[in-house]
Recover the amino acids of this structure.
């Protein structure tokens, strides 16, 4: 059953409702990520923010990037972060101070950055058509493997190097006495 | 609202500011890495927003966003491995206790 472009009776467009809901979830979960005391919950809130961001990408007309966001961020990076949290958590960690002692300076800096970016965005006239354009996945694939083939190959080499480096760094050192250092 | 570039850019700026706050204020190294992920996602959102509203950029923006996601994955892998390696030596994930290089 097809539904109309806007909500009947109210007259608000579905896209706007979706955007407001997704943006609220995104900002709310991002705030939880930076403020929650229990770091495992921070990791789970980070997953929620990735999911709502994937929804916003889909709303922007980029289904391929939305699917990649779900696969790479929710499927891989969140799990990696949760594993790292569980490997580094100590028993008394949640009861200790969460923020640095000068956290209020960071808060002021963040507010200044937000205000400056918002003011810049709102006072600049962007060359925007005022209409979202859907991205064709076939075009993306064609461009990725023709015009952007060199960056693509460089990124694949970078990923290989990063994974090899990560395995080397996180490897348990087998030399005696190394692990008992305080 | 969903048809104006400004709203997406403001959303991306707010997300970036939240990530900045987390990066500067948290003591836990993994929390700082999570804040970096938030900032990377904010930048990606602004790239895709420009792509969705400016016709000549549409395909380029999606390709660039995919490359950024791949590089961010590499960054997260190496960053978390470094945190785990430091944790193994220092037994703490809190960055303000990583001050042995000062001495």
């Amino acid at each position: 059953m097809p539904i109309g472009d806007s909500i009947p009776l109210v007259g608000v467009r579905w896209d706007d409702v979706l955007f407001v809901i997704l943006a609220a979830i995104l900002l709310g979960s991002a705030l939880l990520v930076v403020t929650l005391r229990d770091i495992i919950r921070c990791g789970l809130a980070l997953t929620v923010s990735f999911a709502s961001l994937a929804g916003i990408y889909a709303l922007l007309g980029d289904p391929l990037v939305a699917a990649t966001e779900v696969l790479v961020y929710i499927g891989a990076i969140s799990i990696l972060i949760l594993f790292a949290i569980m490997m580094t958590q100590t028993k008394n960690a949640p009861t200790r101070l969460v923020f640095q002692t000068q956290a209020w300076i960071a808060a002021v800096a963040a507010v200044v950055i937000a205000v400056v970016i918002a003011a810049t965005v709102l006072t600049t006239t962007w060359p925007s058509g005022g209409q979202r354009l859907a991205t064709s996945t076939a075009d993306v694939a064609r461009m990725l493997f023709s015009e952007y083939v060199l960056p693509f190959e460089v990124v694949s080499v970078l990923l290989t190097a990063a994974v090899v480096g990560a395995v080397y760094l996180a490897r348990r050192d087998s030399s005696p006495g190394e692990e008992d250092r305080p | 609202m969903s048809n104006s570039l400004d709203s997406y850019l403001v959303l991306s700026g707010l997300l970036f500011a939240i990530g900045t706050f987390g990066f500067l204020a948290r003591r836990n190294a993994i929390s700082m890495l999570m804040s970096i992920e938030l900032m990377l996602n904010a930048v990606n959102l602004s790239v895709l927003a420009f792509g969705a509203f400016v016709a000549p950029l549409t395909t380029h923006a999606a390709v660039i966003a995919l490359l950024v996601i791949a590089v961010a994955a590499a960054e997260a892998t190496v960053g978390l491995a470094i945190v785990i390696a430091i944790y193994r030596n220092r037994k703490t994930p809190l960055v303000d206790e990583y001050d042995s290089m000062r001495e």
Observations:
- Chain A has six helices and no strands.
- Chain A has two domains: 1-92, 136-171.
- Residues 178-182 of chain A have pLDDT under 50 and may be disordered.
- The longest helix of chain A spans residues 63-88.
